[in-house]
Amino acid sequence: TQVGSPSGAPAEPPRRGLGHVAPRHDVEGFVGSFMRELNYGQGVSLTRSSLNDRYLALARTVRHHLQSRWMAALAQQADDQAKTVCYLSAEFLLGRQLDNAILASDLDDVVEEGLGQLGLSLSTLRAQEIEPGLGNGGLGRLAACFIDSLATMSVPCVGYGIRYEYGIFRQSFEDGWQREDTDPWLALGNPWEFPHPEHAVTVNFGGTTEHYEDEDGATRTRWLPDWDVQGVPYNYMVPGFRNGRVNTLRLWSAKATRGFNLNSFNAGDYVDAVRAETFAEKISMVLYPEDSTPQGKELRLQQQYFFVACSVHNFINQVLPSDFDLHKLPDRVIFQLNDTHPVIAVPELMRVLVDEKGFDWDEAWTITQQCFAYTCHTLLPEALEEWSIELMGRLLPRHLEIIRRIDEEFRAEVAAAFPGDEAMPRRMAIVGDHTVRMAHLATVAGSKVNGVAELHSQLLRDKVLPDFSALWPEKFTNVTNGVTPRRFLRLANRNLSSLITEAIGPGWVTDLDRLRELEPFADDPAFRERFREVKRLNKATLARTLQSRNGIEMPTTGIVDIMVKRLHEYKRQTLKVLHIVSLYEGVVSGRLAVEDVTPRVFAFGAKAAPGYAMAKQIIGLINAVGATVNADPRLDGRLTVVFPPNYDVTLAEKLIPAADLSEQISLAGKEASGTGNMKLALNGALTIGTDDGANIEIRRLVGDENFFLFGLLEPQVEELLAKGYDPASYAAADPRLTSALDLIASGAFTGGDASVFSGLVDNLLHHDRFLALADFSAYMEAQDRVDAAYADPEGWTRSAVLNVARCGFFSSDRAMREYIDKIWHAQPVVTSL
Ligand code: CR6
């Protein structure tokens, strides 16, 4: 057999043990290798090297340890003819790579000691790494957790995505308002990627299609595109945790094709030729900063088709052996569609099979349906992607034809299944009057469709795709999200990790259910004291980080109350602000005695989509309230708002371990799952939350007494909206709410200028789409319960320990096991270390 090389291209048959040299796993070997990288990789001596030189040399030294296993893993996978999970995702929000690589290859001590001998410090070098911000939020981070788990479970997986040259924008605040700057994350070099321009793939766009007769007299179709670009693969290593397994993440970068360029050049217009190049390269230039809302822009569809066409081509023509019988494709691959962004892969695989490989339509469709599965990540109907038929026809004419045929056959199937019901085929259609509905296409083509938490999957069946679930009930399933315990506990919270390992041994890192063994320790006062000490240390670390990162002063006593997530009205950061304003108003008006206010640090982290005006208003409000509250001596320093700009994975790793309280306060029925909620609970924060998304499962597992539940339930939300919701009446009914809204509207937080937030307050009083005012009183009451619970440190710590002990379920390893069992039917491959 031919085997895949790391680049995915066919290579020589493997000669085990001869193909590569393994690096030495000791201090002396490390130091030698580091110095060689510095001297001959960077071309500098130790004394003349910059911080960046040293970081790059360290990264390359560490990566040697992964590379040798990577080569072995790929050879073995081809030998075993294992089924590969191709995880198609427009976003992978990886976070920094260095620490994870050191952890995976068990080099912690070697690196510390080796650098020490050279007079260097790991923490200084670590800080030099710029994280790849190739995602917006939960969806992109979930993809990163999933590929981490698959590698740790030795399941063959290739993550396929886009190597955006600029990741998610950098956020800063100017007078409290969000400002966006580009994120040139590649500017100082990227030691974690391996470009393979020799395996570039050509991707076509535009033009027309034509029918022709093949040698057998059959009518076939070909696409006559009118422009193309090259996709250059950049491979990243995805190491498993100390299991010798390294999978691949393959990100595509767009390059102008030589042919395209030369045409203009030959015609004598040099400037035009260069313009063509910048045009093509725009495709992978920048990540769309939208989260949970689609961007119907042409460039976005270009990005989607670009990465998906490269990926399908790569797997079929470069990863699989050249003599592979494509009838057996479903035995060798499952393409998992991470939301609707990669759904254009469905007609692309059909096109490849029918137009390029000569399959019959029906045969190709049978294969295609077995090769895809679809994960939906939203409940907001407006967030389901649709593309205009006009745009699709102009950019991808052959794909539109294919989609139309899939749609026609599907409508006929629906008509046959529900005779007499004419509305049904129209409602379920893939091609509507003006748009192509990507979620419908994904549901029709996918072998399975899953939501990301129990409630979400149920609402997906009952509310978002009810007709489809009536037609194919067995197609729908749930896999509740998860997070990787390697990054979000073992690495981010080393203090807690050590405490846990001391108590129950190290097995939890790859078998998170074992955290259950911590339960008895919740009743052990000495353990609880050590647990509190861990929180204190983590708070101090966070305070130092905020000080050096942003010059922010953060007290380390009192409740650290954290709300970190994208800024979105449905997540209800405004409800959190109303709580803060109400406490503040209570003290300044004399309604509350300052000594009765429990000291709290309110920490926010949130980016607003640059085009989302209301979200940006809310950021302005948080900062305005924070500036006023922090500066008012009447509060005696008891309430502090901190809002470090540019929340990212690196900052999350500092904030989450320090949290006492996790704010998960979305309107019930709106947050598909959430994953920050899992990370915080796993790190010993108690949740104050609504009955929404995965909060429900967290509460069920940790127990009601260790969770602060409040707010309307999903059916109550529906009921209230159906009978007509009047937010102003809620404001009038609770004097604390009236006063808080009045205080904002009065200009108290904007130097007396009442106009700044009048629109925001009006919107709450007259629209309040996400029922913040309706849940306000219940939220305040739940916060009182929080204060009361915090007044008993032993009881609080007991609850916190139980949160850790009972959240093993939220490991992404468990989520991956469920995908494997219910959806993928893939197998781990035994890796010889
Ligand atoms: N915004 C959901 O809103 C979920 C993640 C991952 C989201 C969030 O609740 O945890 O996906 N949805 O499943 C989308 O991005 C469409 C998100 O991150």
From TrEMBL:
Mind telling me which GO cellular component terms the entry cites?
cytoplasm
Q: Which cofactors, by name? A: pyridoxal 5'-phosphate
Q: What is this protein called?
A: Alpha-1,4 glucan phosphorylase
- EC number(s) per entry: 2.4.1.1
What the entry lists under SUPFAM superfamilies is as follows: UDP-Glycosyltransferase/glycogen phosphorylase
The entry's function note states: Allosteric enzyme that catalyzes the rate-limiting step in glycogen catabolism, the phosphorolytic cleavage of glycogen to produce glucose-1-phosphate, and plays a central role in maintaining cellular and organismal glucose homeostasis. Phosphorylase is an important allosteric enzyme in carbohydrate metabolism. Enzymes from different sources differ in their regulatory mechanisms and in their natural substrates. However, all known phosphorylases share catalytic and structural properties.
Query: Could you mention a single GO BP entry for this protein?
Result: glycogen catabolic process
Enumerate the UniProt keywords alphabetically: Carbohydrate metabolism, Glycosyltransferase, Pyridoxal phosphate, Transferase
Please state which protein family the record places this protein in.
Belongs to the glycogen phosphorylase family.
Q: Which GO terms describe its molecular function?
A: glycogen phosphorylase activity; pyridoxal phosphate binding
The enzyme class is transferase
The reply on keyword Transferase is: yes
Its recorded reaction(s) are: [(1->4)-alpha-D-glucosyl](n) + phosphate = [(1->4)-alpha-D-glucosyl](n-1) + alpha-D-glucose 1-phosphate
Region of interest (Disordered), ranges: 1-22
Q: Which residues cross the membrane?
A: none
